[in-house]
Specification:
By secondary structure, the protein is α+β, with helices and mostly antiparallel strands. The chain contains ten helices and five strands; from the N terminus they run αααββαααααβββαα. Strands 1, 2, 3, 4 and 5 form a five-stranded antiparallel beta sheet that branches. The chain is elongated, with a radius of gyration of 37 Å. The two termini are 60 Å apart.
Length: 464
């Protein structure tokens, strides 16, 4: 009778606890982040409002080679494959957390030869044991909540790698074409300067000019010739980098990219920029930081649950054979409560709260850095677009000046120093022009990268 009474009281207590199940710790809410209503108007002459085409932004350049490189990288890039494996890992760990909802059931058995005073022979034993933790305070629920957010953060990390990867490919490809243009300008200038050196040599042989003109001409052409090898080295490095980004060996793209092609440009000078608030939905690094904050917040509740009693339902079923069969079983709730542990649990909770605070600050910093990146890239694009106009004028003027001063030198109406100065100025201006044209395209890539281009949110993400 007493055993029955004790079991009834224990069972009633368990029912009361089950009915009073709760989830401890703070419930996560997406933080309200203050962002400006519009971008800074001072730099927006070349960047219009509207919804930008971010998912396949690189197609604005109309370059099939670039499109092919990005397609190849989407399947072959090893960093991307590593991020995909991290998603699989996070999904598996989420399964580990969710498995705590279910009981652990273990089967076992043994066989042995036994000799006692009353029995000599074989003994067998087989049985099952079970342990099932009832999630009274939401420890398991918070653990699964944290694992869910971690899994989502790993997805955002994959998307962020996509954004960076596509921008890196576009930047290196633009570098390749820009370096080819700079090399072409340098080689053309070298050819013209060698012709000038031949002219000075002929005039010196005729006794019309001093040997200084020949020496200065040689100096000028040699200095221009020395500019070319470093540019070729940078070109090789850019091609090698592209090869690795697309999952290939260095030099794999040397033949494909070795033939010079124009620097990619955007046919439409107006670039849609969207609104600052769109960054919170589009930038994967912001989305990842927000999911990491959600994961960390759930860990507060997971730690707090250890302050409360743990109710477990254990059970055993065993069959023993020692001459005769004997069946034993047991089942009943077990209560465990950490009444004193030197504030270890509370210190763990405080640590999780501090980590959550740090995650919030990291999220807010990520938003600020994203806003800064967009503003900087738009300003760079607008200012470089203005700069290239002046460089085009200067380059044309320098080319014309070289033609005029060469004719004057042939006629004996000016000294060679003017020719030397104009040839040097032409090389500098043409190199600056090619660099600026490349920078415009690089700044455009920077705009799309800073806006989080390279992927598209699913329909159910639109309201995040």
């Amino acid at each position: 009778m007493k055993k029955y009474l004790v079991s009834s009281i224990f069972a009633g207590f368990s029912i009361i606890l089950l009915n009073g199940c709760m989830t401890v710790g703070p419930d996560y809410e997406v933080p309200e982040t203050s962002v400006p209503d519009a971008w800074h108007e001072a730099v927006l002459d070349e960047v219009e409002s509207g919804e930008p085409n971010l998912q396949t932004w690189w197609t604005v350049f109309g370059d099939e080679t670039l499109n092919g490189l990005i397609t190849k990288a989407s399947t072959n890039n090893l960093t991307l494959k590593t991020a995909a494996a991290r998603i699989e890992q996070a999904a598996a760990l989420r399964g580990v957390s969710a498995s705590q909802y279910w009981p652990d059931i273990v089967a076992g058995g043994s066989a042995s030869a036994v000799k006692t005073l009353n029995y000599e022979g074989d003994a067998y034993q087989a049985g099952l044991s079970m342990a099932w933790e009832l999630d009274l305070w939401g420890r398991i629920r918070r653990s699964v909540e944290s694992a869910d957010a971690t899994l989502q953060a790993s997805v955002e990390n994959y998307r962020d790698i996509l954004v960076v990867l596509y921008a890196d490919i576009a930047r290196n490809y633009i570098d390749v074409r820009t370096l080819q243009a700079r090399i072409a300008f340098a080689e053309n200038n070298l050819k013209a300067q060698l012709e000038t050196m031949e002219l000075t040599q002929n005039r010196f042989d005729s006794g019309l000019v001093p040997a200084l003109d020949v020496s200065q001409s040689q100096l000028n052409s040699s200095r221009t010739e020395a500019v070319i090898p470093p540019l070729k080295q940078l070109l090789i490095e850019a091609i090698n980098r592209l090869s690795v980004l697309t999952g290939d060996m260095p030099y794999a793209l040397l033949q494909e990219l070795g033939k010079p092609q124009p620097i990619p440009t955007c046919a439409d000078a107006q670039i849609a920029r969207g609104l600052p608030a769109d960054l919170l939905r589009q930038r994967p690094d912001i989305r990842q930081a927000e999911r990491q904050l959600a994961s960390q917040t759930a860990q507060i509740g997971e730690a707090k649950a250890d302050l409360y009693p743990t109710l477990t339902l254990p059970g055993t079923l065993a069959v023993q054979s020692l001459g005769s069969s004997d069946v034993t079983y047991g089942f009943g709730p077990q209560l465990r409560w950490n009444i004193f542990n030197g504030k270890r649990i509370r210190s763990r909770v405080a640590a999780q709260e501090a980590s959550t605070k740090a995650a919030l600050y990291a999220y807010e910093q990520t938003v600020l850095l994203a806003l800064e990146e967009v503003e900087d890239s738009m300003a760079a694009y607008a200012n470089e677009t203005d700069r290239v106009v002046s460089l085009e004028t200067a380059s044309a003027a320098a080319k014309k000046s070289v033609e005029l001063v060469t004719e004057l030198y042939k006629s004996g109406l000016t000294d060679f120093q003017n020719v030397l100065n104009m040839e040097q100025a032409l090389l500098v201006q043409q190199d600056a022009l090619a660099t600026s044209r490349g920078l415009i395209s690089l700044d455009l890539v920077g705009i799309y990268k800073s806006l989080g281009g390279g992927w598209a949110p699913a329909m159910d993400d639109q309201g995040e």
